[in-house]
Structure formats: C-alpha cells, structure tokens
Amino acid sequence: MPDLKSMIITDKVPRHIAIIMDGNGRWAKQKGMPRVLGHRNGVKSVREVTEGAGEIGVEYLTLYAFSTENWNRPAMEIKALMGLLVDTIKSEISSLNKNNVRLMTIGDIQALPPDSYQALLDGIETTKNNTGLTLVLALNYSAKWEILRAARALAEQSASGKLRPEDIDEKVFEGALSTNGIPDPELLIRTSGETRISNFLLWQIAYTELYFTPVFWPDFDKKELFQAVVSYQRRERRFGMISEQI
Question: Cα angle at 209 between 207 and 215, to 5 degrees?
Fold first, then answer.
C-alpha cells in the first residue's frame, strides 16, 4: 500500500474541501446496530478527517452535517442527532484549540434546538482566534435556502434604494451568501456510493472537482481523504479553457 500522504503535492493541496458525510445509517444497519450508533461512529471520522486536512495544509473544511430536509427523518433520530451535536462540540473543543482549528457554521442555526444553538455559539467563540484550519459545519443548511435568502436580501436593498439592480454581479451576490469570505471548494467528496449533490453548495461548486467513494462515512479516515486529494491532483482543471491555455 503506497504512502498516500507522501504522494500529495504540497503546493497543490485544495484550499477548501467540502464533504457530504453519507452512509452512517447504512453502516449501522449492515452491522445490525441502531442508526444512531452509525452517527456516533461517524464522529470519529470527523475527528480523523479534520486532523488529516490540517496536516496537509487545507485551509477550509466544510462538512454537511444536517440539511433542512433532514427534519423529515424520524423524530427519535433527529433528537439523537441534536444531542450528539451538543456532546461532540463540548468534547472536541479542547482538541480543536490544541490543533489551532477555528469553528464556523453555515445554515439557519437559529432554528436548531436551544442547547444545540448555544453549544455552537460557545464553540465558535472559544475557537475564534485560532489561525489554522477553519472547520465549517453546514447545519440546517440547504443551497436553495441560501440562494433564496441572498436574493431576498439583495431585493430588499434594491427596493430601499441602497443597491441598483444593474450593480448586482457575481461578487455582490456572493457577498450575500452564507459562505461570504470563504473560497469556493476545489474538491467535493461524497461518501457511501451515492452520486448526487443533495442541495449542497450549489452556487459554490460551479467548477469544483467531484469525488464519489463507496466507503461509508464511519469508515472514512485520513487514508481515504488523502486518496481523494491524490485523485484531485491528477486532474486538469480548465475552467472552460483548453489544455494549452492553462
């Protein structure tokens, strides 16, 4: 087995990696466990991947933790997920600080249960001065929600006379998104074998490289992350141009 980390070209590491963490429930089902245990085991992968991303120099790591559509899941599973979120943030804060990781969120977090919301605010405040990897948790997030929210905000500015419609360009629109100030991801990873985007960062991934793996999220570790980065680095990113122009 080759040392995947040593194969990574350090000056070509993606600044921003986004991950759709999928397959917790199916992982648990395969092992005859309740679905919630799959989510609990997935926390280990979050820790592994966060450490791995920091080791190779990734600046931003965005994890799709809970979508707006996930509210349609069984109430017991949602309650367990929210409790797990609180427990995980509280238990991992010291590790985040030790590794100089800054915590951020995107999504409508005010709609989360009060204890989950407060745990997030505490984690963000505690790590705000860290200067290493920025870990972005997408919680109660959907790309359509984000785009509509941005459009409404710009429409309100236009209606009040603060912004002329003809001045709305890509830069202005991006400034109204939840990810304002965060570079677009160069690499998007989805685990569990599913090959769809599931309403995640639709504006931001216009030119993102996609990497799909059959590995369930609880089995996704540093080695799997490094494999995805090696695959990314073997690709030619042309952004609408031809090879000779790059």
Answer: 150
